[in-house]
Amino acid sequence: MTTAATKSIIAPALRAASVHVRSSVLPASISKSCAAHLSSVPPGGKATLPDLPYDYAALSPVISAETMELHHTKHHNAYVTNLNIALEKLDSAVSAGDVSSIIGLQGALKFNGGGHLNHALFWENLCAKGSVAFPTSGPLKDCIAARFGDVDNMKKEMSALCVGVQGSGWGWLGYDAKTGRIEIRTCPNQDPLEATTGLVPLLGIDVWEHAYYVDYRNVRPNYVNAIWDVINWTKVEERLVAAK
Ligand SMILES: [Fe+2]
Question: Where along this sequence does the record place binding of Mn(2+) (predicted)?
Answer without folding.
Answer: 71, 119, 206, 210
